[in-house]
Every structure is written in structure tokens, then in C-alpha cells.
Write a sequence for this structure.
């Protein structure tokens, strides 16, 4: 049965307009993005097949171009469209931060970092640059690693903070494994970078590690920051 034959309360677009996007399933949201299905399948049925194929919406969103385009019903045009949507979402979120409250709550920092690091399948280390009032300046990715680690150099971290005239920073990286638990190496690196930044009078407020499914860890909350 085509979606146009469904009751209007069950059609994804009408359901979104009536009840809000948060009431839609992953398959329904993806169906709105796809707009059409394939022969013998509605957009919702195709969307569910794609979610089953990739394993989750997160895995679909983080897939590379080759993997994305190889799936039935997808292609380069959809890949480009998806990347544009994700980038618009990131920019929209950041534009509110530049005028908003100080970045003092780890929960707010983690939400910001999800837009930068949440869709990556490689470990990326970066930092959030802040002004004297701890307002957001920008997020700066610095090092990209393999599946498991990135090599981080204190000199580049300090230079970046000085170049952007940051008064404070929040360190950040993701764990592609999905588990945000900090390793002993993560803790040592945090303390080393905090000491290096203090020499140029830049405060290191926290180090946030992102995992999957919205999980994250604040090393400041764990008492690692001196």
C-alpha cells in the first residue's frame, strides 16, 4: 500500500505537522528525508530496510560515501543532501551558542560536541575555544587518528589557543568504540595539556569524551582536572 493510501494521521509528513518531529520513529523521519520508496516498497518500508541494513540510524548517518551509496534506494545525490542537512544542523546549533550563556555545564558542551564528533568513525581530538566569560568562540578539530587513537601534540594545542585569543578551552575527543570511559592515557594527556596551557595563562576547564548513543564523560566531573 502506498503512503498516500494511509490514514492521514499515519503519514509521516502529516504526523510531523500535527504532533511534532519528536513523535516520529527513526524510519518515519528517514522516510521524509528519502521522500519516495522503491518499486514494491513505500518510503517507510524502504527506510526500515535501510535501518536494518546499517544497524541503526547513527550507523547510517556516520557511513562513508561508498557504504551509503551502495545501499538500495540511496545514491550520491542523497549522500550530498544528507551531509548538507547535518552541516546546517551543526551551524544552526552553533549560531545560538555564540549569543548564549557561558559554556559552564558539561551537558551543554556534550550536546555541542555531538554535532562535531558524534558522526565520526575515526578518533578526532579537538577543543572548544572560549572567551573570558567562557562564551563559545568556535570548535577546532586538531588531530585525526585511526579507529582507536589520535596522536596529540601539546605545542599545537597551545598555538591554537593563542592564535584564537582564547582565555579558556575545553578539550574533547570521541571514542569510535562507543565506550566513553577514559583510559589512563586520556587522563595523563589531560593533565599534560592543562599544565602546558597554564603556562600561557589559558584555563583548561574540562575534557569531554564522547561515546555512542549520546553517552559522554566529563573528566572534570571525575576529578581528573587539577
Amino acid at each position: 500500500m502506498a503512503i498516500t493510501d494511509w490514514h492521514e494521521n499515519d503519514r509521516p509528513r502529516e504526523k510531523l505537522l500535527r504532533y511534532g518531529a519528536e513523535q516520529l520513529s527513526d524510519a518515519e523521519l528517514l522516510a521524509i528525508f528519502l521522500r519516495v520508496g522503491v518499486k514494491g516498497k513505500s518510503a517507510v518500508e524502504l527506510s526500515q530496510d535501510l535501518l536494518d541494513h546499517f544497524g541503526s540510524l547513527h550507523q547510517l548517518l556516520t557511513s562513508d560515501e561508498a557504504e551509503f551509496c551502495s545501499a538500495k534506494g540511496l545514491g550520491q545525490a542523497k549522500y550530498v543532501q544528507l551531509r548538507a542537512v547535518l552541516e546546517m544542523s551543526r551551524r544552526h546549533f552553533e549560531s545560538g551558542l555564540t549569543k548564549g550563556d557561558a559554556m559552564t555545564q558539561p551537558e551543554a558542551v556534550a550536546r555541542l560536541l555531538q554535532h562535531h564528533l558524534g558522526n565520526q568513525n575515526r578518533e578526532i581530538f579537538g577543543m572548544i575555544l572560549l572567551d573570558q566569560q567562557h562564551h563559545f568562540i568556535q570548535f577546532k578539530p586538531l588531530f585525526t587518528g585511526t579507529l582507536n587513537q589520535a596522536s596529540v601534540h601539546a605545542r599545537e594545542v597551545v598555538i591554537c589557543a593563542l592564535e584564537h585569543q582564547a582565555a579558556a578551552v575545553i578539550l574533547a575527543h570521541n571514542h569510535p568504540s562507543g565506550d566513553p570511559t577514559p583510559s589512563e592515557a586520556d587522563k595523563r594527556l589531560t593533565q599534560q595539556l592543562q599544565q602546558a596551557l597554564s603556562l600561557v595563562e589559558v584555563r583548561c576547564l574540562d575534557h569531554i569524551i564522547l561515546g555512542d548513543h549520546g553517552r559522554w564523560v566529563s573528566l572534570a566531573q571525575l576529578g581528573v582536572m587539577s
